[in-house]
Amino acid sequence: MPLLDVNHLDVRFALRRGDVQALRDVSFSLERGERLGIVGESGAGKSVAAFSLLNLIAKPGYIAGGSIHFDGQDLTQMSDRALRHVRGHRMSMIFQDPMMTLNPVLSIGEQMVECLKAHRRISSREARAIALRKLEHVQIPSPSARLDQYPHELSGGMRQRVIIAIALLLDPDIIIADEPTTALDVTIQAEIMALLLELCEQHNVGLILITHDLGVVSQVTQRMLVMYAGRVIEQGPTREIINDPQHPYTQGLINALPQMATPGSRLNQIPGSMPSLDNLPTGCAFHPRCGFIDRADGTTRRACIDEVPGFVTSGNCRVACHMVAEMLERERIPAEEIR
């Protein structure tokens, strides 16, 4: 049984003009110690998926359907009191901006001690000793001095290391990292991701990495999900998807990487933009931007416009695309004719 098993998750936001569906039929799993990446453009639903796992969706958002089983328990059916035991204890989250996460009027030590005492019956002295060890684990220089400093006294990279130390305080089973290096420069980004990977491997902690950076995903994760307009459209082993993307949207994301363009020429880009969730196109949500909606003979795949694609299996990946389904069907029929 997977440590985390998400099935047919639907998340909606109740607005005056009607409900807006932010996540549609999202399903995936995570084994203990496994590293999973979730990628897509802004507005794809990555962060909503991450917040849903801990039931941190703020009103007017709510989980409208599906289940989130963690270690055999459905988190969507838990009381707030039971969820508090899971949040921060067994599942921790690293947010995008450490300055928005850390309390500016409390020292680093006070915040770490407070977190520990909220979940364990220990003295302040014991909690401070654990906090010091965690700061040492994340390789912060002079950790004992940092405990008495305030967030504004630390650099961006050091603040993010503190956030990682707080996430590890209670030895969680899963860490959810929501674009943890967005506000950092490239050198510090690499250091933080290398540290996070090392800590997860050492402690057999599962990692869900939310990002738009395919380069980071390819280096850190073992499996990945590609999301578009609130739906998973491709999932499978990271290397397989990076080396041989099946969905046209995934192909577009990879082709948009700077290294895929000819030096001196314009960068490749996916035409158009992510649709608004309250005005999604019919059929496949990507079809207005897709360069493969028309076949080689000039005919249009009407299914792309009229029908939401189901998942088909291609290699070790699952893909929601009518074109891929059509190609797999063409490959299957000649093989049957030969037999």
Automatic annotation (TrEMBL):
Keywords: ATP-binding, Cell membrane, Membrane, Nucleotide-binding, Transport. Residues 6-254 form the ABC transporter domain. It comes from the Bacteria. One of its GO terms (cellular component) is plasma membrane. It is a peripheral membrane protein. One of its GO terms (biological process) is transmembrane transport. It holds the Pfam family ABC_tran. SMART domains: AAA. InterPro entries: AAA+_ATPase (IPR003593), ABC_Ni/Peptide_Import (IPR050388), ABC_transporter-like_ATP-bd (IPR003439), ABC_transporter-like_CS (IPR017871), Oligopep_ABC_C (IPR013563), P-loop_NTPase (IPR027417). It catalyses: a dipeptide(out) + ATP + H2O = a dipeptide(in) + ADP + phosphate + H(+). Belongs to the ABC transporter superfamily. This is ABC-type dipeptide transporter. It comes from Halomonas lysinitropha. The gene is oppD.
